[in-house]
Specification:
The chain has 1 helix and 39 strands. By secondary structure, the chain is mostly beta strands. The chain folds into 2 domains: 130 residues, Jelly Rolls (Sandwich), CATH 2.60.120; 327 residues, Tachylectin-2, Chain A (5 Propeller). Strands 3, 5, 7, 31, 34, 37 and 39 form a 7-stranded antiparallel beta sheet that branches. A hairpin with a 2-residue loop joins strand 35 and strand 36. The N terminus is likely disordered.
Length: 496
């Protein structure tokens, strides 16, 4: 059974059974908090139980994004060159000069053309233009949209307060040329003209250093709390430690398992030694591997990662899907063990029939643009396509109740200095109701009880909570708890 949804004139399809199949007992466990949690504006989501003190009658659901019916959105063939395969975007950033979006992605060819970083622009994130930049010489011509040669990865970070204009943009790559091959960084004033690739010795995974550095799927993001850059990447387990006989039949030491590693840097030049942060365990299939984590976003105080899962020995040539992973500090990660973006296994000929791996997630208006790599036949063969799916803003997971209703009580919270105003819900209460009350321990605050709350009965990503028409929070200066009563509705999160 398929549901068809229409967003801004474009058609998207999804499996109607996906939401029901993704229901679980609750969000993943978070580290407990011993005192009032200080909250910023948000959004505050319920992918983990960090904010939850008590919950009754509610079900947890992961919501898969709706796939675009006219995928791929990035042509497989590069119009300028002989490159005949592509990836979904490694990075999408706002185009501040032209009120649109900028995209970096990897056009490539297995027939000898190599892997490169390409560039495109868009007004809506669906229709993309591929400019003739004249920056990189490829096979004797600069008439192309390439900006860096012989690299995989290409996560681009915008750093407007960099120490010099030449470093306004930073990027991490896994370079193929020049040698030595491996994790590298580069800097650019505009995202188009890049300085030399700087190889990072600390993350070398070549030769006998296998299992100590970054392999060829790399990503980086900024940690605003510790004011550090964080890189997460695919790495191989050390020979004899956590190994499996991989399908490809490569002899040791390449008999390790693909797992997830992390490194940190203050200046983007000196990086800490790699350490393992996620690997499959006894609950997983014996041949499950993690293919890096190409996309990490930050929403409120939560890091959300999109984890490509691979079973390389599944016929005909490997299968894969994407799960969610969450972290409060960027160092300790937990998986939500169910597909967030499943492959289209029932649809023969689908661009993602074998594998669906998310590479970038960007909020555009009140929706998430979820870009992903669709592999039609398998991991090492067949077509590769840059695809798109859509989701409501911050709609990754929800807590909901049916006719019997349910409640959620947060832990005591206080507001960060400068955060004032109203509570706004991201919720679907169409056909149901959500009411909110504020508590101080066992006492409901006067004027902020369920009976005072104007019932919420709509579906929106930002619904102000009002008590008899007033929305301002009490100015007691004391921590308070937020209690939600939910009936025939779903709550995705809230903000201030």
């Amino acid at each position: 059974m398929l549901l068809v949804a229409v967003f801004a004139g474009s058609t998207f399809i999804r499996n109607a059974a996906a939401v029901d199949a993704d229901r679980g007992v609750g969000p993943v466990k978070a580290q407990s908090e011993g005192q009032a949690i200080v909250l910023g504006p948000g959004p505050h989501l319920f992918l983990d139980d960090y904010l939850i003190a008590e919950m009754t009658g509610l079900t947890f659901a992961v919501h898969s994004p709706a796939k675009y019916a006219h995928n791929p959105v990035i042509p497989a063939k590069n119009k300028f060159t002989s490159l005949d395969k592509t990836t979904a975007p490694t990075t999408v950033l706002p185009d501040l000069a032209n009120d649109g979006l900028r995209m970096w992605y990897i056009p490539h060819s297995r027939s000898g053309g190599g892997y490169h970083l390409g560039y495109a622009t868009s007004k809506d994130g669906i229709q993309w233009k591929f400019p003739d930049l004249g920056v990189v010489d490829f096979q004797g011509s600069k008439h192309n949209n390439l900006v860096v040669s012989h690299v995989i990865g290409g996560r681009v970070l915008f750093a407007p307060h960099a120490r010099s204009k030449a470093e306004t943009y930073k990027a991490v790559f896994y370079r193929h040329r020049p040698e030595p091959v491996g994790f590298s960084v580069a800097f650019s004033p505009d995202g188009l003209r890049w300085g030399p690739l700087v190889w990072i010795k600390e993350l070398d995974d070549s030769g006998k250093r296998l299992g100590t550095g970054a392999s060829d799927v790399v990503n980086a993001f900024y940690d605003p709390v510790r004011r550090e850059y964080v890189s997460v990447f695919k790495m191989w387990s050390v020979e004899g430690d956590y190994t499996i006989p991989v399908k490809r039949g490569v002899p040791p030491p390449r008999c390790g398992r693909r797992i997830l590693g992390l490194s940190r840097s203050k200046d983007f030049r000196r990086w800490s030694q790699a350490r393992v942060i996620l690997k499959p365990d006894a609950k997983d299939p014996a041949t499950l591997e993690f293919y890096g984590m190409p996309c990490v976003i930050r929403r409120g105080d939560l890091f959300i990662g999109f984890l490509p899962c691979l079973i390389d020995d599944a016929p005909p040539d490997g299968i894969g899907w994407t799960e969610l992973a969450v972290s409060r500090d960027g160092d300790h990660w937990q998986r939500i063990r169910r597909p967030f973006l499943p492959r289209s296994k029932e649809t023969k000929g689908a661009k993602d029939h074998a594998i669906a791996w998310i590479s970038e997630v960007v909020r555009v208006g009140d929706r998430e643009h979820v870009y992903y790599n669709g592999l039609e036949y398998g991991h090492k063969s067949g077509g590769r396509f840059g695809c798109l799916a859509l989701l409501r803003s911050d709609g990754f997971a929800s807590l909901g109740a049916g006719q019997g209703g349910g409640t959620l009580l947060t832990k005591p919270v206080s507001l960060r200095t400068g955060v004032t105003g109203v509570i706004a819900l991201n919720a679907d209460a169409q056909g149901g109701t959500i009411r909110v009350q504020l508590r101080d321990g066992s006492r409901v605050l006067a004027g902020y009880a369920y009976a005072d709350c104007d019932p919420i009965t709509v579906d929106s990503v930002s619904i102000p909570v009002r008590w008899r028409g007033k929305s301002e929070l009490p100015k007691t200066g004391r921590p308070f708890q937020i209690q939600f009563s939910i009936k025939n509705a779903r709550l995705f999160g809230f903000s201030f």
